[in-house]
Write a structure and sequence with these properties.
The complex is a heterodimer of chains A (680) and B (73). Chain A has 680 residues and is α+β, with helices and mostly antiparallel strands. Chain A has 22 helices and 16 strands. Among the domains of chain A are: 82 residues, 2-Layer Sandwich (Alpha-Beta Plaits); 66 residues, Alpha-Beta Plaits; 137 residues, no CATH class. In chain A, helix 11 runs antiparallel to helix 22 and helix 16 packs antiparallel against helix 19. Chain B has 73 residues and is an all-alpha fold. In chain B, helix 1 runs antiparallel to helix 2. The model of chain B has no long low-confidence stretch (mean pLDDT 86). Classes of the chains: A alpha+beta (680), B mainly alpha (73).
Chain lengths: 680, 73
């Protein structure tokens, strides 16, 4: 769970006549990660393998299938199938079916394009003729004059034009369409054409070109509209035919596409192998747990004609990473891989991530109202994205965060939608709102931490620092263990940093004793009480006072020890890391910051909204309800977004930097996840 | 006393305000570059996010100082 699966590097060597059979076997096993062959690696006699003879034929068929799918605009995501097709059946039918499909599809799509083309042409003509339809002048009458010029077009200021036109000449004739679009046709004597043109331009004139042809525009339009109607019916029929066709062939297309993809994959596999004239060599990684089964299968099926050799893991090998986690944790691998895929030698932090990420997320929201909203939102999110494996995980994180948020809201903050269940004792009777005063019944859920109080804020700050100390310390510890084998210096620096970090945490614990000390009280009767009060606390607290500040001995000793260790192994520059670890610890105060910022926002909105609702006026009250719902949703959205991002950031930046290297190679087994076909 | 509290409050405001401004300034530049990088190569998303959020710690320093001042009021 904490390490990627162990891998064994294996060489498979065989004779060329067994090549296809071997590929077939490896493909069905689906546990072999083939290493791309590079000539220089092994031996100068080895060359790259060539694709098998099947490759080009299968590729060609695949191209045809894909282009058909394109023409039918087949949506692969939405298409469902009744049953998986057996591979044998596809193999038998494929050639004939492709030919058949290609022919009918070609004629169908051609018909459709032809109709569409015709449709467009008529549409264009109607559009051109439309402006002239309102004026009852046959088209041939617009041109062919010796002494007349004709202007046709739209005009913006018709009134001004008709007023000024008589000043130019009396010899004209002006036709206008109905008021709306202000189309004009002006017949004017040629010598006045220039002046008329000027006037037209002053009145916002846009020329409309005269379409070719003879006859009344209206009649043309009527005729063409009728044609258009016929065409659209035909188009509908063809579209229906295509849909029918798609329905009939969809399953075949999906299944054969998958079948051919697999065929091409197998046929092109030898490119990854090294070959000589008569033999081939496959260099691959196999998970150690699967090794036994792979060996047995290959031995049995190949009757010993394949030579299998395990190679010892070398220092500079980079095996692929295959994570192994229980199902709930596996969902968090997505979050990890968003940062970087773990290196083979990394500790797999998915499990820790799956615990701490939702915990922090929930702590920052810390409200049972928003918590329940988060759970609902998460469920909806998962439903909406159930087809996409990666994204749907985010819904899962939101659900778990919602659960944590509800728990914190109920037991720690006593909050629902930013409103406490009970007022803090010293505020009782004041003009503040709480669920108890609003509903008029006493709800006995106290707030352990009041977010909006000075004391509560201090407590939250201390809680966040402690919450930061645990993962940071854990990260340094893991980092130390990982580094110990490779680089002792780094490992010792990490011990030093751990000392400094612990010193800082103790210092804050001592300084903040008055704020959180009361929480330890329930432990007074328990078995660890003597240890706590007689040893641990006095030891941590003992120190000397200087300038009004307490300097505890233990924290100072740890801090100095840590710094000395770092200076000894890493030199003065190592001190930069001390600063870094300090700022990382401070960085966790964002837990408190966001928690309070969100609560303050909700508090302010509640004051406004509840003030309106309880004002006594019905209309203002209804307005207040709408406003309050809107504002609450805003707080929820902002809070969820910033909490989620900050919670993941605390892992990516502060936690992972202590030990995580990443940049691994994903284990990618040779094989195919079949969705539409079976081998049976 | 009231004047003193006022001065402290202004100090707290300046602390958080200037720290927030510094963070915003840094994030503005980094954010633009990070989005650019992620647009070219999706694998840069994780790294970009990290660089993007690094300056956020500055505003937290401001917050802590502002808070310490507030408790002195």
């Amino acid at each position: 769970m904490f390490r990627p699966q162990e891998m064994t590097r294996t060489l498979l060597i065989g004779a060329k006549q067994d090549l296809e059979h071997t590929i077939e076997l490896l493909h069905t096993l689906e546990v072999v990660h083939i290493i791309d062959f590079k000539t220089a690696d092994v031996d100068e006699h080895l060359r790259f393998g060539a694709p098998t003879t099947k490759a080009s034929g299968a590729s060609r068929s695949l191209l045809k299938i894909r282009s058909s799918a394109q023409m039918l605009s087949l949506d692969r995501e939405k298409q469902t199938i009744s049953e998986k097709l057996p591979e044998k059946q596809i193999q038998r039918d494929i050639a004939l079916k492709i030919q058949d499909m290609e022919l009918s599809l070609l004629s169908l799509t051609e018909t459709k394009t032809r109709i569409e083309e015709h449709f467009r042409k008529i549409d264009e003509r109607i559009r051109q003729l439309q402006p002239f339809a309102a004026m009852d002048i046959p088209l041939e009458d617009y041109h062919g004059y010796d002494h007349l010029t004709v202007f046709t077009g739209y005009i913006r200021d018709l009134k001004k034009f008709t007023e000024h036109l008589p000043a130019i000449t009396e010899n004209y004739e002006l036709f206008t369409s109905d008021a709306d679009d202000q189309m004009v046709a002006l017949f004017i004597i040629k010598k006045h054409a220039e002046d008329a043109n000027k006037l037209l331009n002053d009145c916002g004139y846009t020329e409309v070109k005269l379409p070719e042809g003879t006859g009344l525009p209206k009649q043309f339009i009527e005729k063409w509209t009728e044609q258009k109607h016929d065409l659209s019916e035909k188009l509908l029929q063809t579209t229906k035919d295509i849909l029918e066709f798609r329905k009939r062939y969809a399953e075949f297309i999906l299944a054969s596409e998958e079948y051919l993809t697999i065929e091409v994959q197998k046929a092109e596999a030898p490119v990854l192998f090294g070959t000589t004239e008569h033999s081939f060599l496959i260099d691959c990684w196999i998970p150690k747990d699967e090794m036994q089964q792979v060996m047995e299968t290959l031995e049995k099926e190949m009757q010993g004609s394949l030579y299998i050799q395990e190679i010892e893991l070398k220092h500079n090998d980079e095996p692929p990473t295959l994570l192994k986690n229980p199902r709930p944790v596996r969902r968090f691998e997505f979050l990890l891989e968003l940062y970087s895929i773990p290196n083979y030698r990394d500790i797999d932090p998915s499990f820790i991530l799956s615990l701490i990420f939702p915990l922090f997320f929930g702590l920052m929201i810390g409200d049972i109202g928003y918590g329940i909203l988060l759970i609902l939102f998460g469920v909806l999110f998962m439903k909406a994205f159930k087809d996409s494996e990666g994204i749907s995980n985010i819904g899962w994180y939101i659900i778990i965060a919602g659960v944590f948020s509800s728990i914190f809201g109920l037991f720690l903050f006593g909050d629902m939608f930013g409103l406490p269940f009970m007022l803090p004792p010293h505020e009782a009777g004041e003009a503040a709102y709480s669920w108890s005063t609003l509903l008029g019944i006493h709800i006995p859920i106290p707030s352990v931490i009041h977010k909006m109080e000075s004391l509560g804020m201090t407590q939250l700050l201390v809680v966040s620092i402690i919450a930061g100390y645990l993962p940071l310390g854990l990260g340094l510890l893991i980092g130390m263990i990982v580094e110990w084998k490779h680089d002792k210096k780094h490992a010792i620096t990490k011990i030093g940093l751990l000392c400094v970090l612990t010193a800082l945490a103790l210092l804050i614990f001592v300084m903040a004793d008055w704020t959180i000390g009361q929480w330890l009280k329930p432990l007074k009767g328990s078995a660890i009480a003597p240890f706590l009060w007689d040893m641990f606390i006095p030891l941590v607290k003992s120190g000397f006072s200087f300038g009004g500040l307490l300097f505890p001995y233990v924290a100072m000793a740890l801090g100095i020890l840590g710094i000395l260790l770092i200076i000894i192994v890493a030199g003065g520059f190592g001190l930069v890391e001390v600063l870094e670890v300090t700022s990382h610890l401070m960085s966790y105060t964002r837990l408190a910051a966001i928690c309070v910022a969100k609560a303050a926002m909700a508090f302010a909105f509640n004051m406004i909204g509840l003030g309106l609702i309880l004002s006594g006026n019905i209309i203002i009250g209804i307005l207040g309800v709408i406003l309050l719902i809107f504002m609450q949703l805003m707080v929820f959205a902002l809070g969820a977004l910033s909490s989620g991002i900050q919670a993941i950031r605390l892992h990516y930046v502060e936690f992972f930097m202590k030990f995580y290297k990443g940049e691994g190679l994903r284990f990618n087994p040779f094989g195919y996840k079949r969705k539409y076909t079976t081998t049976k | 006393m009231a004047a003193e509290a006022g001065i402290i409050a202004i100090g707290a405001g300046v602390a958080i305000g200037s720290a927030a401004f510094a963070t915003a300034w840094a994030q503005k530049t980094i954010g633009a570059a990070a989005v650019g990088a992620a647009a070219e190569n999706e694998k840069m998303f994780g790294k970009g996010l990290i660089y993007m959020v690094l300056p956020e710690t500055i505003v937290l320093f401001g917050l802590v100082i502002a808070f310490l001042l507030w408790t002195k009021m």
